[in-house]
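TL;DR need structure tokens for one chain.
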Amino acid sequence: MLAVLRRQCILDELQRNGSALISGLAEQLSVSEMTIRRDLAGLERDGLLERVHGGAVLAQRGVEEPGFDKKVLCQQAEKAAIAGLAASMVKPGSAIGLSAGTTTCMLARKLAQVAGVTVVTNSMKVWTELQRAGDGRSHVILTGGDERTPSDALVGPTADATLRSMYVDVLFLGVHGMDPVAGFTTPNVSEAETNRTFIAHARRLVVLADHTKWRTVGLHILGPLSAADTIVTDDGIAAEGRQLLSSEVDDLQIAPIPR
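>> reply
TL;DR here they are.
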């Protein structure tokens, strides 16, 4: 198994259980404990976990966030399934917003061929994806921004002013975490402000969040769970999460993961 796939399996195990033993990971992945130790060391350097005696636990820091290039390697199947389901909600001729994030970037790839869509985004990666994959049938508006966050969001007064000047039919929003008490959160204060502006100028809010975002809490609040009209997650989310989310939003969509 390639190292990148093995490390994804390790992260998936940590997301399911919160912790993992080196011995158990070695047996599960049919490799030596030394190989697992090297994998854990690499993932710890990337800020994705914390090593403890005999194993590892997830890194949970409310003000820290791995960069886009690190996050894009995580939960790829889940994000692709969520993006596919979200793409089916987009109608030709509509105006939609795409926040920055790895799941919204996957959605951008699927939207490139939808006729007549106007896309407003504060992400260079989303903008580039639409420009690369499109054939000129869609119109893309990039907000610009005074700074760029680790998750690839263009933020600040310029981005906020652009967003305040328009309304979109649907905003597809990626989040750092969703929690029954804290709601939707992000670690970055500037990104929180820009996303709140985005939310205020959308007729409908669709939050895209894989199951690992459940009960993850960042420092800055975007809004309560009830602010979303729709939440799209994957079938890895626990029954407790489904029940609580269903009680807060009218439309909870569960994307099945191919197995």
